[in-house]
Amino acid sequence: MPVASAFDRVAWIYDFVMDGILGHYEKTARIVWAALGAPVQPLLLDMGGGTGGVSAHLIRRGARVVLLELAPSLLRRCPPGVVPLLGDGCRLPLADASVDGALVVLTLHHMADPDRALEERARVVRPGGVVVVIEKAPPAAGDVRGRVVHWAEQLLFGPLRCVPPAQLQARLEAVGFAPKHLFRFGYVIRARRLPVAAGHRGPVGVTQGGEEGDRARRAA
Ligand SMILES: C[S@@+](CC[C@H](N)C(=O)[O-])C[C@H]1O[C@@H](n2cnc3c(N)ncnc32)[C@H](O)[C@@H]1O
Considering all CA atoms of the chain, what is the largest pairwise distance in Å, rounded to the nearest integer? Predict the structure, then answer.
């Protein structure tokens, strides 16, 4: 089943599980806001933002938020104040360098083409802007609970493409960001777009090396 239909099917219970049971929204918004550096009234893109629970808490902190989502039934539940956009994170209907920052919360591993989504994010975040990625690490071999949850999630939502943090950091560097791995829980990566990013867009998956890479990293 395509991922959008799978999430549409659980829209009625989504907030209850994510917030009522897991207490996800406020807790996650706090982490995202701190990782963004508590900016003043930023314009943010919430990519794959679901029902907008995290976005709502960012708006309370002064952000303006455009939420892009593939599943219409989730998007319809977005709270007032969030600008809802139906679409695919691999083809963002936004201009180059048009947002101050972007968040991608528990979404990348559901995307059919996470590399393309990274390139799109690199395109729309302005130089100096920040991307915050909160992701699920691939379950370790001995992590039985993690493997069962992973298997159940695949049954519900289709194939998951979990990327280890080091690999995601290398991909972010390749599209012109200076990433920092912040936590070990699942993982959170904060990546500032480098000033030279326009001329710094190597192919995804290849870390920028040599003198140019060193200069860019020093400038971050
Ligand atoms: C686990 S949910 C997380 C939602 C939200 N970020 C949150 O923290 O509550 C994953 C979301 O990614 C969305 N998604 C998956 N692939 C997508 C794509 N290609 N473009 C946009 N959204 C996508 C799904 O529809 C779903 O809402």
Answer: 52
For the four alpha carbons of 26, 27, 29 and 33, in that order, the dihedral sign comes to: positive
Ligand 1 within 6 A of 52 CB? no
CATH of 3-219 given 3.40.50.150, 3.40.80.10, 3.30.429.10, 3.40.1710.10: 3.40.50.150
Per residue in 136-191, pLDDT tens? Answer: 888 888 889 989 999 999 999 999 999 888 999 999 999 999 998 886 556 788 89
- Pick the atom of ligand 1 nearest to 89's CA: 20
pTM of the shown model: 0.85
Please state, in angstroms and as integers, the Cα–Cα distance from residue 70 to each residue in 58, 74, 183, following that order: 21, 8, 28
> Residue 219 corresponds to which tokens in the numbers above?
């400038």
Give the DSSP H/E element, type plus range, for residue 36: helix 24-36
Average pLDDT, the chain: 87
Using CA atoms, how far apart are residues 138 and 140, in angstroms rounded to an integer?
6
Residue 104 CA, closest ligand 1 atom number: 6
Question: To test the ligand 1 pocket, which listed residue (47, 70, 75, 121) has its Cβ within 8 A of the most ligand atoms?
Answer: 70
